[in-house]
């Protein structure tokens, strides 16, 4: 018997799925708002959750990372009343089990639920859990935890891996981590910088050559592919591989055999392939600058490393990790950080990602010298200038905010309900006073919450339908 949660504001949909679950012998619960549903999920114990996209208090897709990061997270089946191709793509990328359009036939819901539960049972029965050695890999954000899950999958097989991400995100570090946690840690980790391969020596560099094969070949040479035998071959910046080489390399991938330059016999190499690129290989394929068949071979397992600006919560632990390493390298006492140091780092956009962060911290470490604390003033001037400009731009917007706050204050002061009403004169009828107070309350509520429907409903305790009915009653304009 499984536990199923339906998060949907459509009571008929909830009732249909609850009835179906009961007939199948499962327990089920419903939640009609996103926050209430998330609260139930945090309590744990659910095997499958049917999650609507468009809910009164938010978008279900926005909460997918949180759901998937929960301990023993449930399988997620997305529900939506509109055909949204982009939403389907985001849902699948977020790790959902399926994506159903409302109204879906009961048979389709039954099949999807049954398959999700079968998958979950098989997943729970696995005993070969992977304990990863993540030395020097720092990250606690949801985005990084998703990457660690993919690394764990890659370590359990010998499949080809493609790691993508901007320059400086740590692609080679992740490749080495996969190698060290795989079944080949004792083999060589051989790096091939595809961007530096010269057209005339590329085959000799990769496949080796016999003595006398060409001018300057004064002795036999073992190529990088053979050096990776029983280990891992890492193709860095694979998007830069010359088109002329891609066809021959595709055969090497398929057969694990190749012929050194000037050699009559083929040579075998049992290597595991990991590739990395900061280029969009699909775009290169569309432009016929990269072979599609090679692209499909490379990406059996694909890991996208997020840029640092998408995981700002990792900046502080990364900074502490780098500074600890610097203290060890220079045999220096442990250093502390100024109160504003991390807020400055988190304001910067980090176009060079983790690599740039490491460089900046080393410069700050050196600038601090013998001081026991690293302050923001020790950071490079160009970084501090960019951060200052961002902060000034933010402050430039604040006068408008202050003007709005002043207007709200004036509105509240003018309100006979929210200020102390003058009841010394002639009193209105109680019914009229209630109407007047209700209208002023709604006007102040909309103004204070800046029209944010989620906050309005949370503050007032009103339902969405009741709130809109009151707006209509008092002829108050509000844009949702």
Q: What features would you highlight for this structure?
A:
single chain; alpha/beta; globular; 480 residues; 14% strand; Rossmann fold; five-stranded parallel β-sheet; 4 domains; Helicase, Ruva Protein, domain 3
Short description, anyone?
Helices cover 47% and strands 14% of the residues. By secondary structure, the protein is of the alpha/beta class.
Mean pLDDT: 86
Q: How would you sum up the global shape?
A: globular
Radius of gyration: 30 Å
Instruction: Provide a count of the helices.
Output: 20
Under CATH at level 1, the class of the largest domain stands as Alpha Beta
By secondary-structure content and strand pairing, the structural class works out as alpha/beta
First and last CA, distance: 41 Å
Strand order of the largest sheet: 2-1-3-6-7
Within CATH, the superfamily of the largest domain carries the name P-loop containing nucleotide triphosphate hydrolases
CATH topology of the largest domain: Rossmann fold
Strand content: 5-15%
Q: How many distinct folded domains?
A: 4
The strand count comes to: 18
Uncertain segments of ≥5 residues (pLDDT<50)? 412-421
Percent of residues in helices comes to 40-55%
CATH arch. level architecture of the largest domain? 3-Layer(aba) Sandwich
How would you characterize the largest beta sheet? 5 strands, parallel
């Amino acid at each position: 018997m499984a536990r199923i949660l339906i998060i949907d504001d459509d009571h008929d949909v909830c009732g249909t799925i609850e009835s179906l679950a009961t007939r199948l012998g499962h327990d089920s619960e419903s939640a009609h708002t996103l926050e209430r549903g998330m609260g139930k999920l945090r309590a744990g114990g659910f095997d499958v959750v049917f999650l609507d996209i468009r809910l009164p208090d938010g978008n279900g897709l926005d909460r997918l990372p949180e759901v998937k990061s929960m301990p023993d997270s449930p399988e997620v089946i997305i529900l939506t009343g509109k055909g949204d191709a982009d939403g389907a793509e985001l849902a699948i990328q977020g790790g959902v089990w399926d994506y159903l359009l409302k109204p879906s036939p009961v048979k389709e819901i039954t099949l999807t639920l049954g398959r999700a539960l079968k998958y979950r049972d098989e997943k729970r029965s696995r005993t070969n859990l992977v304990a990863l050695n993540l030395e020097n890999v720092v990250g606690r954000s949801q985005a990084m935890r998703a990457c660690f899950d993919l690394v764990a999958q890659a370590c359990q097989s010998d499949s080809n891996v493609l790691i993508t991400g901007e320059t400086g995100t740590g692609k080679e570090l992740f490749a080495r981590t996969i190698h060290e946690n795989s079944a080949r840690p004792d083999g060589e980790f051989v790096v091939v910088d595809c961007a530096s391969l010269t057209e005339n020596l590329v085959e000799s560099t990769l496949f080796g050559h016999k003595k006398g094969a060409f001018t300057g070949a004064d002795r036999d040479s073992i190529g990088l592919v053979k050096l990776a035998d029983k280990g891992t071959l890492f193709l860095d910046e694979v998007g830069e591989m010359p088109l002329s080489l891609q066809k021959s390399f595709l055969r090497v991938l398929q057969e694990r055999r190749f012929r050194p330059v000037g050699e009559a016999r083929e040579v075998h190499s049992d290597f595991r392939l990991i590739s990395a690129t900061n280029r969009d290989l699909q775009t290169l394929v569309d432009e016929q600058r990269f072979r599609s068949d090679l692209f499909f071979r490379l990406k059996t397992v694909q890991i996208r490393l997020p840029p640092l600006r998408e995981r700002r919560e990792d900046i502080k632990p990364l900074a502490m990790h780098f500074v600890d390493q610097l203290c060890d390298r220079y045999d220096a006492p442990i250093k502390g950080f100024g109160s504003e140091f991390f807020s400055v780092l988190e304001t910067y956009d980090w176009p060079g990602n983790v690599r740039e962060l490491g460089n900046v911290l080393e410069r700050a470490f050196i600038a601090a010298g013998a001081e026991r604390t690293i302050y923001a003033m020790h950071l490079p001037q160009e970084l501090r200038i960019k951060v200052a400009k961002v902060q000034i731009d933010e402050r430039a917007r604040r006068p408008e905010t202050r003007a709005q706050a002043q207007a709200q204050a004036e509105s509240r002061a003018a309100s006979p309900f929210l200020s102390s009403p003058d009841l010394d004169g002639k009193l209105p009828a109680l019914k009229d006073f209630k109407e007047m107070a209700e209208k002023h309350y709604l006007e102040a509520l909309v103004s204070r919450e800046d029209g944010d429907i989620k906050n309005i409903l949370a503050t007032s305790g009103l339902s969405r339908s009741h709130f809109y009915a009151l707006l209509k009653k008092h002829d108050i304009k509000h844009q949702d």
